[in-house]
Sequence to fold (159 residues):
Amino acid sequence: MRRADREIKNRKDILDVIRKCDVCRLALNDDEYPYIVPLNFGMRISEDNVYLYFHGAAEGTKYDLMEKDSRASFEMDCEHRLVSEEDRGYCTMEYESVMGRGILEPVPDGEREEALKIITAQYHENEFVFSREAVMRTRVFRLRVISMTGKRKRKPGRG
Fold:
């Protein structure tokens, strides 16, 4: 990381940033160009492993690319705040972000509803009750995170 002063080094702090985010951008390997897709997500920590869960329709480009190459990168960001100091001619953006790499894998049918609960827990305070039809027509997959880094930019004096 070029700006070591902005690095979030504590794993708990990185996980806290993930909990604040509402979109995860997943980058998949395509033949000529990377394919990036913004997704809603949920996170589960199991035996010190971090898993990011995603859902979607039954078919699509992301699934075709996942089957060809299960390696992926991800990025998410939050806490955006524009900081302008017109008298100095200075403008910047405050933010927190996490990016990393991992291996994608399908979630088995028997674990689909639990995985959907992990995703909705990112957005709902109370447990969400799914209709059986919605669960059956939703495809769920996860990313086993291999590495991740966090970064934060705050104006001096703003923690």
